């Protein structure tokens, strides 16, 4: 892994996101029974509000980092559901009550002003993952704050008792990306509100499908020999660098600014040559098209298009997609 500190200008949303972790094991029948169904319910309820993952502490998808996170909170069994490290005490007879309880926990956490948050911009090329990130303190901080990044797969087919060998595991936690389960220390002592930390790192991965990856970032506060979850974020749209940008798009530039909007965003296309077949549109992080911004041909020169915040209902992360022929470029956009 390589690591460096330099300004990356990654937008940092002033948002809160709790961490919901399920401990699991591929051979565990309860994990594949009521634990499996409950995890799916939480994904349906909170996948756009919380950072949710299943960390296997035994079996086919065993992760030593998941085990260390569980041990940090005194959890060694499965299935166990943790809300920001607090064991919710789920069993087969209290799923409805615990679902409502977690829903209340999520809303309470979201309503609080975040003391610190991070922005993540991940790219994947040639089995190399590059992550640019920024942290910003929104209040005065006291103590030692760490940030750690983790790899998660949106879906993975594999064994789960009693479902079988073709079970589709959702939000499967894999491993840390910083050579330390609880990351590196970013802020220490007294950190004034408004302090920003920018950095980046790259790490070689196996042969993953970037469209199936999520990069999780968790901000931890060190307390003695343990860590507490402060806030979290996730990049659900890891961008892939390809060799598709030839012909018409090869000499074209595509910019979106600002990348965090409360009013409007400008999409600027600078085309060196005519682009005969182009589209610009807005999608959510799943790729669902939400708004058509432009469709047609573009003459050479600069073209500006505008997207107004009022046209989009919910706040959160979106993608601006620029297609020219068979080539596609994307830019992330955060609606405040």
Shape designation: globular
| Average pLDDT, all residues | 89
> What is the CATH architecture term of the largest domain?
Sandwich
The CATH superfamily of the largest domain turns out to be Immunoglobulins
Topology, please?
Elements: E1 2-4, E2 19-25, H1 34-46, E3 51-58, H2 64-72, E4 80-83, E5 86-87, H3 95-111, E6 116-125, E7 128-137, E8 141-142, E9 145-160, E10 164-176, E11 184-187, E12 190-191, E13 196-204, E14 213-223, E15 226-235, E16 239-240, H4 247-250, E17 253-257, E18 260-261, E19 264-271, E20 275-283, E21 289-298, E22 301-308, E23 316-324, E24 327-335
Parallel strand pairs: 2-3, 6-16, 18-24
Antiparallel strand pairs: 1-13, 2-4, 4-5, 6-7, 7-13, 8-12, 9-10, 9-11, 9-14, 14-15, 17-19, 19-22, 20-21, 20-23, 23-24
Helix pairs in contact: 1-3
Describe this structure in words.
The chain is mostly beta strands. It has two domains: about 1-240, Immunoglobulins (Immunoglobulin-like, Sandwich), CATH 2.60.40.10; about 245-335, Macroglobulin (MG2) domain (Immunoglobulin-like, Sandwich), CATH 2.60.40. It is about 15% helix and about 50% strand. The protein contains four helices and 24 strands. The strands form six sheets. The chain has a five-stranded mixed sheet with strand order 1-13-7-6-16, with no helix packed on it. Strands 9, 10, 11, 14 and 15 form a five-stranded antiparallel sheet that branches. The protein is globular.
In short:
The protein has 336 residues and is mainly beta.
């Amino acid at each position: 892994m390589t690591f460096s500190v330099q300004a990356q200008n990654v937008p940092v949303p002033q948002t809160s996101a709790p961490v919901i972790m399920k401990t699991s094991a591929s051979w565990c029948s309860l994990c594949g029974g009521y634990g499996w169904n409950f995890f799916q319910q939480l994904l349906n309820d909170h996948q756009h509000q919380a950072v949710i993952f299943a960390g296997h502490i035994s079996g086919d998808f065993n992760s030593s980092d998941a085990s260390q996170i569980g041990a940090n909170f005194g959890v060694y069994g499965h299935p166990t559901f943790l809300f920001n490290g607090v064991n919710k005490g789920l069993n087969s007879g209290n799923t409805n009550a615990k679902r409502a309880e977690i829903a209340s926990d999520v809303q309470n956490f979201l309503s609080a002003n975040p003391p610190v948050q991070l922005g993540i911009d991940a790219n994947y090329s040639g089995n190399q993952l590059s992550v640019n990130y920024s942290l910003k303190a929104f209040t005065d901080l006291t103590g030692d704050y760490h940030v750690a990044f983790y790899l998660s797969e949106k879906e993975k087919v594999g064994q789960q008792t009693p479902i079988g060998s073709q079970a589709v595991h959702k939000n499967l936690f894999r491993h840390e990306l910083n050579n330390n389960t609880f990351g590196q220390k970013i802020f220490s002592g007294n950190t004034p509100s408004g302090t920003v930390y920018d950095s980046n790192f790259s790490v070689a991965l196996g042969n993953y499908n970037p469209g199936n990856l999520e990069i999780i970032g968790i901000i931890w506060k060190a307390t003695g020999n343990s860590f507490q979850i402060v806030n979290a974020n996730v990049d659900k749209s890891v961008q892939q660098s390809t060799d598709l940008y030839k012909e018409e798009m090869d000499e074209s530039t595509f910019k979106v600014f600002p990348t965090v909007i409360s009013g409007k965003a400008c999409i600027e296309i600078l085309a060196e040559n005519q682009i005969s077949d182009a589209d610009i549109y807005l999608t959510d992080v799943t790729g669902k098209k939400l708004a058509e911004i432009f469709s047609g041909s573009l003459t050479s020169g600069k073209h500006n298009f505008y997207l107004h915040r009022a046209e989009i209902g919910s706040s959160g992360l979106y993608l601006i997609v620029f297609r020219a022929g068979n080539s596609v470029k994307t830019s992330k956009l955060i609606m405040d």
